[in-house]
Design goal:
The structure is a single chain. This protein is an alpha/beta fold. It is built from eleven helices and 13 strands. Strand 10 and strand 11 form a beta hairpin.
Length: 371
Amino acid sequence: MKFRQPYLNFIETELQLPKKNHGEHLVIDLFGGCGGLALGFESTGFQTIGYEMLADACATYQHNLLGVCHQVNLTPLSNLVEKAAVIIGGPPCQPFSVSGHQLGLKDSRDGFPTFIAAVERYRPQIALFENVRGMLFRNKKYFEEIVLALQEIGYIVEWEILNAAHYGVPQKRERLFCIAHKGGWQWPEKTHFSSPYTAGEALGESVYLAAPNSKFLTSRMDEYIKKYEIASKCINPRDIHLDTPARTVTCRNLSSPTGDMLRIRLPDGRRRRLTVREGARLQSFPDWFQFQGSENNQFNQIGNAVPPLLAKALAHSVKTYLERKQQISSEKIHQPTQCIQLSLELGIDVVDNPARNNCKLSKRGLSQNAG
């Protein structure tokens, strides 16, 4: 059996930062949050500059990473740093997540007009965004609009739903990743598909302990959870199972005493909620990464973050793509025959064209239905 590092040693080794933020390639990190994506890219040798609205998340980014984080409310007209080779980001996901009512383009929290405007204005060699699976379902038509807009700018667009557990994260977290490139992109290899790290490996001895400030479930909470699990037809209790990766870590199940909260059952039968550090470990943040702000704000930062180990896998693919230099010019990239009509202003000239209704969405791009 192939030797595998203990989980905490693994993330400590994988996510080491260089001594200086002088990477060859500059990365613009939009809606950067606490820096989950940035940590993966910086540990791969990129130089990052972040843009984030929330003060506590920006403070966490600044405290732990080499790159500067600008606290700013981003708009399509925001001025960003010049000459970036890469634009990455996690535009606000509430418009598309199940817990966020899936309002899509009707939701004022939508960050995609800003993301696309930045790609069009600064023309990076490659751009990447992360969002929830819901974009491909109830809001599939809006996702098509985003893909078409990026194609119209002159990019090839590909997307996949990636499971973080396949890249060393001890969590069954599935998220949509979309890449706008100029040719030659390859998705990262699944390094832990058959041997994922488990929640028990990530949490270590803490699962058997209860710190003085632990938040225990009350008998009323236990009763509520029992009713919740019956109503949800849960076969197994939703306590954290130590022999498998954890279920998806979110703001809600970390910070709120709800029926689906992440909780640990102690040997004496009591159940407690996760600590900030335990939530961070399940997201693959090393123990040296310190979160700023109130406990609730720290939970929100963790739940919203891209797991740094998954970010690093993507960063390696981005680095390989840039080094291969197989990109082709925008003029030579096949442009879709559909004209784009967006309900939100994305900075693209629009013309109404009924051919757009023939657009068919697939994982690798957009094609027209025959006939």
